[in-house]
Design goal:
The protein is α/β, with parallel strands linked by helices. The protein has 13 helices and 17 strands. Helices cover 34% and strands 13% of the residues. The chain is globular, with a radius of gyration of 25 Å.
């Protein structure tokens, strides 16, 4: 009788736990930025927003030191180009053992590559993935970390294909290696990690129904036998479920390694769309509804892409690549977003080390006929992506356009005096030249700005005052 009561209580507790289980929401912390925040500032930003999971694209020691003792669960990564050359024992020693332990970093996953099976790579990395995982697993065992740290491989959704979710299958060229990979993941208690981007489906296909990319319901649902799909995420997810089922692992846990919506750099990439998509995603996950093939079972974890804008990312996929952050490069929330983690909205980073409040603009009295070469050189180094079609600064007038480019370069050069010269076409102002939604940034630094460093960075005050007077007089004359 007593055993029966205990068993019934245990079952009830299990059912209650299962009923209330939902996806844990984390973020991707990318660091390809011209203006990097101090790692401690980023960690405090995560904690202020009650984000308990973070994914790194490398094993940056400064980031890991800042994460020590934070209680935040961490996924570190091995870049694709190191898969064939890295030493697994040395990697574990340098990037895991020395940061873990009491009061250390809570590293739970190591991502072996990032989308190594992407079709655009032409198979360059795919033969290195499984051997790298096997060798690294042996090193984890030797370091007594194998039961705690799990190996995963973030895959792009192009690893599988189908016209409808129920027919999902891995690409023919990947069937064998995926079977080996998933078998390894299953035997070691690791989930399958996939990156899903409805924005890219919309961006790359003019015939893709726009409302199908979001979570508000669609007038173009996908019918798949008895199942109906009203958004791209559910359809993509279940296509993967079907692909896993076909190779014998239909119950494999799934983690979403990257998902998000950019706020600039392309038509359809804006603050409103990003807020609607990300809030819709969070609400969908927290509803615990799941998908038609996994009802009541949403993904195990979901990592939003990304935490911060990364102005130094490659723009080959599109100018939007530098604008995925839910926070701007300086840790300021771009829009209202309730992550369901206890805060009604996002909290901004504090104690950000900004450069002085000054900007470089086009001199109002100078002829800009010969400015083209300066613009080309400046934009080859600084981020000018918001000026392109669909960008938040694409509607600027000619002079403001030039000023934006000048300032982007000036801030990139840490407000170095010579970087605002442009053969006499530029000048420094203390008046914020931002126009509407087009923000002229002031750079940040990941270094402490001591009084001595500030002195060394100062301009000759005479030149600043002269520039300010000229700017003000010109404005008055125009008015």
């Amino acid at each position: 009788m007593g055993n029966g009561v205990v068993a019934l209580f245990t079952l009830s507790l299990l059912l209650a736990t299962t009923h209330h289980a939902h996806s844990a929401i984390g973020v991707n912390w990318g660091t390809l930025s011209f203006h990097k925040l101090q790692p401690s500032t980023v960690v405090n930003l995560l904690k202020a927003n009650k984000i308990t999971k973070v994914k790194l694209f490398d094993s940056n020691p400064d980031a890991l030191r800042a994460l020590m003792g934070s209680g935040i669960q961490v996924m570190i990564s091995i870049p694709n180009d190191l898969l064939s050359t890295f030493n697994p024992d040395l990697f574990v020693q340098q990037n895991l053992s020395r940061f873990m332990g009491k009061g250390g970093a809570d590293i739970r996953y190591v991502a072996v590559g990032n989308e190594p099976f992407l079709t655009s790579y032409g198979g360059a990395y795919q033969n290195y993935v499984v051997p790298a995982m096997v060798n690294l697993q042996q090193s984890l065992v030797k370091a007594n970390l194998a039961s705690y740290v799990k190996l995963v491989v973030p895959c792009n959704a192009d690893a599988y294909e189908s016209n409808v979710p129920s027919q999902g299958a891995f690409r023919p060229d990947l069937t064998q290696i995926m079977t080996q990979l998933v078998s390894f993941l299953d035997s070691n208690g690791s989930p399958f990690v996939v990156n899903i981007y409805p924005f890219l489906s919309l961006y790359q296909n003019s015939d893709f129904p726009q409302d199908f990319a979001f979570f508000e319901g669609s007038s173009h649902p996908v019918l798949d036998g008895p199942n109906v799909y009203y958004n791209a995420f559910d359809g993509n997810f279940d296509t993967l479920v079907s692909a896993l089922t076909k190779i014998g692992y239909g119950q494999m846990p799934i983690v979403i390694g990257e998902i998000g919506w950019p706020t600039d750099g392309a038509v359809g990439a804006n603050l409103t769309a990003a807020r609607v998509f990300n809030q819709g995603l969070v609400n969908h996950l927290l509803s615990n509804k799941g998908t038609p093939l996994r009802p009541g079972s949403p993904p195990q974890d979901v990592y939003l892409f990304g935490l911060l804008d990364e102005g130094a990312k490659s723009t080959l996929p599109g100018n939007f690549e530098r604008h995925w952050g839910i926070f701007s490069f300086d840790g300021q929330a771009k829009y209202r977003l309730n992550l369901g983690l206890g805060n009604r909205g996002l909290k901004n980073a504090e104690n950000v080390q900004y450069l002085p409040s000054r900007w470089c603009v086009a001199h109002p009295e100078k002829d800009m006929t010969l400015v083209a070469d300066h613009l080309r050189v400046a934009c080859s180094q600084a981020d000018c992506t918001t000026l392109n079609d669909g960008g938040s600064c694409s509607q600027l007038g000619e002079k403001d356009n030039i000023s934006y480019v000048f300032n982007s370069y000036y801030q990139l050069q840490m407000q170095n005096e010579r970087s605002c010269d442009f053969d006499g076409l530029g000048m420094v102002t203390f008046l914020d030249p931002s126009v509407g939604d087009c923000r002229f940034l002031v750079g940040v630094t990941d270094k402490d700005l001591s009084s001595s460093a500030e002195l060394m960075a100062r301009w000759d005050i005479y030149h600043i005052c002269i520039g300010l007077v000229v700017w003000a007089l010109t404005r008055c004359y125009i008015l």
